[in-house]
Design brief:
Length: 349
């Protein structure tokens, strides 16, 4: 087990040294069983990778689920990846999760598909960290998704020897640390374990993501349009990833690209003020999140007062909303696959 200890130590070191460019939410499967968020709050947190509040009664969560009146797509089209017959090599893709069925399939599912294609010698399986989302999908759609503990138990039961875990988190923070700690509890169950890095870890990652989002929105870059990306935001130090992305965009010449957050800085007001300094007629809004869940559909593209869409419309702009998670972009899927490759390679070192 010496090799396994080294791999975990390396993962823990990465978490500490990269905390300045990280974000995470403290919500393991064990904590999720007793958390008291509403389903909507859980959806918001799914895009955030930030620490989740625990202030609302479970009764309100149940009421929120009962009142759900929107269509998130056909859950049967998604692959829950919770089958046995795994073999000796497994690549477990860990996500917070989302109950928006189409977005789950087009983002998390697409990342899993890309990793499966890249690693034909590994069986790809899924694990979510939000028990509220798991329970909601099960109750509403009768689709069972493993939490991380269940996925690890399934791997152990199936005789997996080499386990690679690739998180789909945007940032490296509390959620990543919780994942490392939970996997460490199973250190005696496998011969070797390695954990891949989240999306925004190195400067090269930032450049790759910047390239992906600017190419995906190039058709709107006409000199008259401000292209605004909405992240979640956190009061933790890791919130600086948004400022870093903004700085890199500006330095690269994308001066009509703006990055803001829902719950931290830069705020909607900050982004709106910055856009007003230009001579734009139109605004494009898109989430800077892996999935397009509640924040993207409501806080960004919603018709209610206070959304980014209505705020920009009230300011006189023609607004286009692109309700697409980052996980839909092939370049983002490939970046996660590259991170998984580095983890696979570490098994032989």
């Amino acid at each position: 087990m010496k090799k396994l200890a080294v791999l975990f130590a390396a993962a823990a070191l990465t978490t500490v040294t990269l905390a300045g460019c990280s974000g995470g939410q403290k919500e393991t499967a064990a904590e999720a069983a007793k958390e008291s968020e509403t389903v909507t709050t859980a959806e918001q947190t799914a895009e955030a990778e930030t620490e989740a509040p625990e202030t609302t009664a479970e009764a309100e969560a149940a009421a929120e689920a009962d009142e759900e009146n929107y269509d998130t797509g056909d859950a049967s089209k998604d692959n829950a990846r919770n089958k046995d017959e795994i073999g000796e090599n497994e690549l477990l893709v860990v996500s917070f999760g989302t109950s928006y069925n189409d977005s789950r399939r087009l983002t998390i599912g697409a990342i899993e598909d890309a990793i499966e294609k890249a690693f034909p010698d590994f069986a790809v399986r899924r694990g979510f960290t939000s028990q509220i989302i798991i329970d909601h999908v099960k109750s509403r759609d009768n689709v069972a998704i493993d939490n991380v503990g269940e996925a690890l138990e399934r791997a152990e039961k199936n005789g997996v020897r080499n386990l690679v875990i690739q998180p789909t988190h945007l940032m490296n923070g509390l959620e990543y640390t919780d994942l490392v700690n939970e996997v460490a509890e199973y250190s005696d169950a496998f011969d070797k374990v390695a954990i891949g890095k989240p999306l925004l870890t190195t400067d090269d990652d930032f450049r790759a993501v910047m390239k992906a989002i600017t190419e995906a929105t190039a058709q709107y870059d006409d000199g008259e349009t401000a292209i605004c990306f909405m992240g979640h935001g956190t009061e933790a130090e890791s919130n600086q990833v948004y400022a870093k992305m903004q700085d890199m965009l500006t330095e690269a010449g994308y001066k009509n690209y703006y990055v803001g957050t829902v719950e931290a800085a830069p705020s909607l007001d900050d982004v709106l003020a910055a856009v007003k300094e230009g001579s734009y007629q139109k605004v494009v809004l898109e989430p800077l999140m892996i999935v397009a869940g509640d924040h993207a559909n409501n806080d960004m593209a919603g018709d209610e007062d206070g959304s980014w869409k209505t705020a920009f419309e009230d300011a006189g702009y023609e607004v286009t909303c692109l309700v697409n998670g980052l996980g839909e972009l092939e370049a983002i899927q490939q970046l996660f696959a590259e991170h998984a490759q580095a983890a696979v390679d570490s098994l032989t070192k």
